[in-house]
Fold each of these.
Amino acid sequence: MKAAVLYGDNDIRYEDWEMPQAEPGEVLVKVKESGLCGSDIPRTIHGGAHFYPIVLGHEFSGEIVETGEGVTERKRGDRIACVPLIPNRNDPQSQKGNYSLSKGYKFIGSRIQGGWAEYVAMPWENTVVLPENVSYTEGAFFEPITVALHALNIMNFQGGRDVAITGMGTIGLLTLQCARAMGARKIAVFDIDRERLETAREYGADLCLNTLEEGFKEKAMAFTGGVGYEVCLETGGVPVTEILCLDLAAPKGTVMFIGTPHKPVTLQPNEFEFINRKELHVTGSWMNYSAPFPGWEWEMAVYLFDKNLVKTEKLIDRKIPLSRASEAVNDLTVPGAVKGKILFECEK
Ligand SMILES: [Zn+2]
């Protein structure tokens, strides 16, 4: 079979690769569409891969073409989305159902070979069956959307609250749509990119603010009658938006950090004091799993796509054959060249 194999920084080669076999308890998946995640950027261009050569890709959909010994819960022809975490079931956190927090897990597409390939073999538990009217493209978004849903799950998100979301990248735009579908009252979103903000408006945001424009914070507060937002969801992973969330939160509000941080953050005393003075709940979220594995997040993703409550069209930068993976990875090194999700078509 063919795969896009990473040999080093910005060195991806589309070449022949060993065909995987479905071991007992596993299924062999013919990959249809496979995404390039923000978390793949350090792996592909900043020396961040666990080993080389490696086939990345943990956000993908496909069709089961073979089942290994003992597999009764899946069958040939099932259309699936990949669930990339293979928990270490002996870890105490796994036993409590906190799979994302466990140690010693395997991860398809970063710790073991992944889905930038024509075929992947994986445990059947690592597949979620797609309903008929959920496309393979939507299936490739199950991994990122469950990141948003996990945050909402562990904070016991309730509808009827005003919500602020910072960062309108893939995760931000998915978080927005999940919060909308789950009954958020007013949603204000924040970014520096005008196009992304327009997409956010189309995808359900009530107020879209550019943080480069003067007076945005006053507008945001006025939108809630000066009270602030009961729920602030941070997906940008940059100091400006991290601090902004503490500022925008209503008294007793919850600030949820989803975005992976990339830079040091310095809080001035008055900024830190937001936490004290407003008695904020400041919390974080990691990955996308809960008990029973893989969790409510994945069931909810099925529901949201099945009911057409989430759109992905404008989240996609381009869809290209896997054979052109190196060109996409090369673009990651050019500022502004990639705006949104790159999807690889793995049959071409
Ligand atoms: Zn991802």
Amino acid sequence: MINVGMVGYGYWGNNLLRNFMNTPGCTLKTVCDLRLERLKIAQKQFPSIEITDKIEDLINDAKIDAVIVATPVFLHFKFAKMALLAGKHVLVEKPLTASVDEATELVNLAKDKNLILAVDHTFLFTGSVQKIKSMVDEGSFGKLQYFDSTRINLGLFQPDINVIWDLAPHDISILNYLIDEKPVSVSCTGQSHTSNKLENIAYLTLQYQSDFIAHFSCSWVSPVKIRRILIGGDQKMCLYDDVEPTEKVKIYDTGFDVKNEEEKHKMLIDYRAGDIYIPKIAQKEALSEMAKDFINAIDKNQRPLVDGESGLEVVKILDAAQKSINNKGQEIKL
Ligand SMILES: NC(=O)c1ccc[n+]([C@@H]2O[C@H](COP(=O)([O-])OP(=O)(O)OC[C@H]3O[C@@H](n4cnc5c(N)ncnc54)[C@H](O)[C@@H]3O)[C@@H](O)[C@H]2O)c1
């Protein structure tokens, strides 16, 4: 039985607690939060758990094998490092850390101590992303040309990070999971409409060595909730609409062929708009799959689906996006 401790029992911590309590082979032994009212809620739900407002109680508990960090992002590094130094496996909420240096240090520390470092990029565990991944790997879309995501809603404004650090990790992690090629440059613009100057709307573009391109729209100030990703290949295209209750993934037999390319002024395009296919998607709770994967990785000493290196790759893009925003959209080489 793997004993887990969790620091941060806010909105997401509540989902993590429920799923880890239902994961075979582990138990969530102790929850730590600064807010006593939250700890009481946790204990009411699961009377067996211990509660504390001191992180040291988790870190110094020899019976705890693994620590989940579900605090605000600026505390991820501090708590993950403390746990790794104490010889505990660590699962960190997304994004792994607030800087590349911090993420690199955690990755190296976990490696040195032969401990599991995993990141909760939850969307990779959804049936939809798993299905799209298997279709990409089978070559169903042909050569991939673009990834275009829109993740917008009204709120939730975060007090410590801007909209790119809050929402883009979901889509960047999906993109990195689907394609092996790494971006060569990042450009990003954004705007804040509040006094704390954290951008609440932003547009991020990734350029690649090949002709692949990726674009992300992120907003906390949209009147409607949209969570859509379009993926284009030269054979087929895909719409992943996470707000759809059932038919989340649609595959379009859509494409174009360019004729007379050598004579640009005479270029002809043949458009193809064929059938639309809706694949069957496994209806599993993504967080439950993530929890199982983390516990299994500890148990078998194997790589989790999203390890520290994958988390670091996401942070590298976020960090470059931040530099670009600070320089009015300047292209930042990776
Ligand atoms: N994977 C996902 O889909 C997903 C979704 C939402 C949030 N998150 C991530 O989860 C993390 C938490 O987000 P949230 O929305 O639950 O925030 P939240 O503010 O609701 O919860 C954070 C909790 O951490 C506690 N906390 C703060 N400082 C602490 C300290 N020093 N010691 C102990 N506890 C402390 C707070 O009291 C609060 O209860 C963030 O990293 C966020 O990015 C991930």
Amino acid sequence: MNVFLNKIRPNVRALVPYSLQHVEARVKLDMNENPLDTPEVIKEAVIEQLQHREWTRYPELVPQRLLAKLAQFAGWPENGLLVGNGSNEMLKTILMAVAGPGTRVTVVQPSFSVYQQLVMITGAEYRPVLLTPDLQFDVEAICREACRSDLTIVCAPNNPTGTQITPTAIRKILSSTSGLVIVDEAYYEFSGMTSFDLLREFSNLILLRTFSKAMAMAGLRIGYLLADPQITAEVAKAKLPYNLNFVSIAAAEAGLDHIELLQANVRRVIELRAMLTARLKRIAGVEVFPSGANFVLFRTPLPGPALFESLFAQSVLIRDVSKAPLLDRCLRVTVGNAEENEVFLAAVRKSLLEGAVRHVAEKEDNPGIL
Ligand SMILES: Cc1ncc(COP(=O)(O)O)c(C=O)c1O
């Protein structure tokens, strides 16, 4: 064993790494990616820019043109915006500026696991607050913890449950605390809900957004935050210089230049979600939770790993989230295109049928167990 391992902080060594195996599958619905690829005109605009630029040069330290476009798109001043290498980088930057030993961070559970991972690394005290048993936000419980926390993180809509939270409830949380509140709006475009209007009223609110989901650019790693300019200026000190490369800057600009194409695709994904939800509900034994995002959480009579494996054997990859608190027998499926959704639904039907048959057979083998 490497004798220097003791130099890695104990709270880091205690962590289980955030790991996902990169596995191939015919239908890949495990990462909440946009099923409709970036429109060609956007790709062409980016490629054109890249061809006429010297790659030997650094990108801009402050991507002014992108910030101007983003400010116009979001309706928020440039000095209240910070862009980075995915919204995850922005989250890490905020935590570096805010969290550390002696601070408390409240996080809703179950939610995006990167929150807990990053909070633990900072050495801050991690304060989880469970959703209610029917997977709604427990606003009273969040307020009770938030009022004693330096930072509270709420994912709206929530990953992996798809649960929505209204701006009225977010207002309550913001009012309850003297700490900062991050509202992660990674999926807000699919929900028709945003806490944006609260930014003017609450100087403790930080909104996180991404180009990875509705904007169909997960591979380019672009995210941003919106906050009071004074908070933004302080958080910016924790950001690495040149954190956004010029390919990503060009892509983000081109995406904003053609926002109407991306918004049309978002409307299509919302339709596909409605179809997927309705069809999934019709399968006997399946409980589907309402979702404001581009994924759907569902529960079946089978154990999560069993259904996951059975679907994977049919080359359909989704996410087994059944180990998370409150999510026994639950899995999360990303809304795919029409064809992918069909394959997924057929695979679920087949798996449940086979699983049900096996369960009956097991029961017959074990008549003593009632
Ligand atoms: C809630 C949430 N926030 C952020 C992210 C990651 O965003 P980005 O790709 O911008 O780092 C994800 C990705 O799945 C997510 O589910």
